[in-house]
Predict the structure.
Amino acid sequence: VRPVSTDGKEPLLQSIEEIYQALLLGVKDYVEKNGFKSVVLGLSGGIDSTTSLFLLTKAFPIKQISVLHLPYFSDHEYIQLITKQAKIPTENVHTIQIKTLVEPYKQTLHLDENQANDRIRLGNVMARTRMMVLYDFANSFITITMTIYFSQWLVVDKKVPDFWFSLSFVIPTF
Protein backbone atom coordinates (compact mmCIF):
# COMPACT_ATOMS: atom_id res chain seq x y z
CA VAL A 1 0.00 0.00 0.00
CA ARG A 2 1.39 3.35 -1.04
CA PRO A 3 -0.45 6.58 -0.34
CA VAL A 4 -0.48 8.85 -3.37
CA SER A 5 -0.77 12.59 -3.76
CA THR A 6 -4.08 14.17 -4.63
CA ASP A 7 -3.12 14.19 -8.31
CA GLY A 8 -2.53 10.41 -8.12
CA LYS A 9 0.97 10.57 -9.57
CA GLU A 10 3.55 10.94 -6.83
CA PRO A 11 3.66 8.84 -3.67
CA LEU A 12 3.50 11.03 -0.57
CA LEU A 13 5.72 8.63 1.34
CA GLN A 14 7.42 5.51 0.11
CA SER A 15 5.92 2.98 2.49
CA ILE A 16 3.78 2.31 5.52
CA GLU A 17 7.03 2.11 7.52
CA GLU A 18 7.88 5.67 6.47
CA ILE A 19 4.45 6.85 7.60
CA TYR A 20 4.89 5.05 10.92
CA GLN A 21 8.36 6.54 11.46
CA ALA A 22 7.10 10.02 10.50
CA LEU A 23 4.27 9.76 13.06
CA LEU A 24 6.69 8.65 15.79
CA LEU A 25 9.13 11.41 14.95
CA GLY A 26 6.39 14.04 14.92
CA VAL A 27 5.01 13.00 18.31
CA LYS A 28 8.46 12.73 19.94
CA ASP A 29 9.67 15.99 18.44
CA TYR A 30 6.61 17.96 19.51
CA VAL A 31 6.71 16.72 23.09
CA GLU A 32 10.48 17.13 23.47
CA LYS A 33 10.64 20.60 21.87
CA ASN A 34 7.91 21.83 24.21
CA GLY A 35 9.64 20.38 27.26
CA PHE A 36 6.78 18.11 28.34
CA LYS A 37 7.72 15.25 30.63
CA SER A 38 4.58 13.16 30.10
CA VAL A 39 1.50 12.77 27.93
CA VAL A 40 -2.18 12.17 28.63
CA LEU A 41 -4.29 10.31 26.10
CA GLY A 42 -8.08 10.51 26.00
CA LEU A 43 -8.84 6.84 25.26
CA SER A 44 -12.29 6.10 23.88
CA GLY A 45 -11.44 2.55 22.86
CA GLY A 46 -12.01 3.26 19.19
CA ILE A 47 -9.47 2.60 16.47
CA ASP A 48 -8.11 6.17 16.44
CA SER A 49 -7.36 6.50 20.15
CA THR A 50 -6.14 2.90 20.40
CA THR A 51 -3.74 3.53 17.50
CA SER A 52 -2.64 6.74 19.19
CA LEU A 53 -1.90 4.78 22.37
CA PHE A 54 0.12 2.26 20.37
CA LEU A 55 2.20 5.09 18.86
CA LEU A 56 2.73 6.68 22.26
CA THR A 57 4.02 3.39 23.70
CA LYS A 58 6.58 3.26 20.90
CA ALA A 59 7.60 6.90 21.32
CA PHE A 60 7.84 7.24 25.13
CA PRO A 61 8.57 5.25 28.26
CA ILE A 62 5.34 3.66 29.50
CA LYS A 63 5.56 5.46 32.87
CA GLN A 64 5.28 8.84 31.07
CA ILE A 65 1.88 7.93 29.58
CA SER A 66 -1.41 8.47 31.40
CA VAL A 67 -4.72 7.32 29.98
CA LEU A 68 -8.06 8.95 30.72
CA HIS A 69 -11.32 7.23 29.74
CA LEU A 70 -14.41 9.47 29.86
CA PRO A 71 -17.52 7.36 29.25
CA TYR A 72 -21.05 8.72 29.19
CA PHE A 73 -22.96 5.45 29.24
CA SER A 74 -20.79 2.93 31.07
CA ASP A 75 -17.24 1.84 31.60
CA HIS A 76 -15.95 -0.43 28.90
CA GLU A 77 -14.04 -3.58 29.83
CA TYR A 78 -12.07 -3.30 26.61
CA ILE A 79 -10.35 -0.16 27.96
CA GLN A 80 -8.77 -2.37 30.61
CA LEU A 81 -7.79 -4.89 27.94
CA ILE A 82 -6.26 -2.20 25.73
CA THR A 83 -4.26 -0.58 28.54
CA LYS A 84 -3.15 -3.96 29.87
CA GLN A 85 -1.97 -4.99 26.39
CA ALA A 86 -0.13 -1.66 26.12
CA LYS A 87 1.44 -2.31 29.55
CA ILE A 88 0.24 1.02 30.95
CA PRO A 89 0.61 0.90 34.76
CA THR A 90 -2.79 0.70 36.47
CA GLU A 91 -2.01 3.86 38.46
CA ASN A 92 -1.76 5.69 35.10
CA VAL A 93 -5.20 4.58 33.90
CA HIS A 94 -8.12 6.73 35.02
CA THR A 95 -11.86 6.66 34.32
CA ILE A 96 -14.16 9.60 34.96
CA GLN A 97 -17.85 9.11 34.26
CA ILE A 98 -19.15 12.26 32.52
CA LYS A 99 -22.89 11.52 32.69
CA THR A 100 -23.39 13.62 35.83
CA LEU A 101 -21.66 16.54 34.10
CA VAL A 102 -23.64 16.20 30.85
CA GLU A 103 -27.12 15.63 32.32
CA PRO A 104 -27.67 19.26 33.46
CA TYR A 105 -26.92 20.44 29.90
CA LYS A 106 -29.22 17.77 28.49
CA GLN A 107 -32.05 18.91 30.75
CA THR A 108 -31.45 22.63 30.26
CA LEU A 109 -31.32 22.30 26.47
CA HIS A 110 -34.28 19.87 26.41
CA LEU A 111 -32.35 17.27 24.43
CA ASP A 112 -34.26 14.13 23.47
CA GLU A 113 -32.01 11.14 22.69
CA ASN A 114 -34.76 9.73 20.45
CA GLN A 115 -34.46 12.68 18.05
CA ALA A 116 -31.64 12.48 15.50
CA ASN A 117 -30.74 16.17 15.67
CA ASP A 118 -30.77 16.11 19.47
CA ARG A 119 -28.45 13.07 19.47
CA ILE A 120 -25.96 15.09 17.42
CA ARG A 121 -26.31 18.03 19.81
CA LEU A 122 -25.88 15.71 22.80
CA GLY A 123 -22.75 14.26 21.17
CA ASN A 124 -21.37 17.79 20.88
CA VAL A 125 -22.09 18.44 24.58
CA MET A 126 -20.34 15.17 25.48
CA ALA A 127 -17.31 16.03 23.31
CA ARG A 128 -16.93 19.45 24.90
CA THR A 129 -17.39 18.02 28.39
CA ARG A 130 -14.68 15.49 27.67
CA MET A 131 -12.36 18.28 26.52
CA MET A 132 -12.94 20.28 29.71
CA VAL A 133 -12.27 17.24 31.90
CA LEU A 134 -9.23 16.27 29.83
CA TYR A 135 -7.79 19.80 30.06
CA ASP A 136 -8.30 19.84 33.81
CA PHE A 137 -6.81 16.37 34.23
CA ALA A 138 -3.79 17.31 32.11
CA ASN A 139 -3.33 20.57 34.00
CA SER A 140 -3.13 18.59 37.21
CA PHE A 141 -0.05 16.89 35.72
CA ILE A 142 1.22 20.01 33.89
CA THR A 143 1.62 17.96 30.76
CA ILE A 144 0.52 17.80 27.16
CA THR A 145 -2.80 16.25 26.27
CA MET A 146 -3.21 14.05 23.25
CA THR A 147 -6.84 13.61 22.57
CA ILE A 148 -9.26 11.94 20.27
CA TYR A 149 -12.18 13.92 21.60
CA PHE A 150 -11.05 17.07 19.79
CA SER A 151 -11.37 15.21 16.51
CA GLN A 152 -14.94 14.34 17.43
CA TRP A 153 -15.77 18.06 17.39
CA LEU A 154 -14.01 18.58 14.07
CA VAL A 155 -15.80 15.63 12.48
CA VAL A 156 -19.28 16.43 13.80
CA ASP A 157 -19.23 20.23 13.53
CA LYS A 158 -16.78 20.86 10.73
CA LYS A 159 -17.27 17.68 8.64
CA VAL A 160 -13.49 17.12 8.52
CA PRO A 161 -12.22 13.53 8.04
CA ASP A 162 -11.28 12.34 11.53
CA PHE A 163 -8.19 10.35 10.55
CA TRP A 164 -6.02 13.46 10.25
CA PHE A 165 -7.02 14.68 13.69
CA SER A 166 -6.50 11.45 15.61
CA LEU A 167 -3.26 12.79 17.07
CA SER A 168 -4.50 16.29 17.85
CA PHE A 169 -2.49 18.09 20.50
CA VAL A 170 -4.05 20.35 23.05
CA ILE A 171 -1.71 22.34 25.25
CA PRO A 172 -3.06 22.92 28.74
CA THR A 173 -3.31 26.44 30.09
CA PHE A 174 -1.46 27.18 33.30
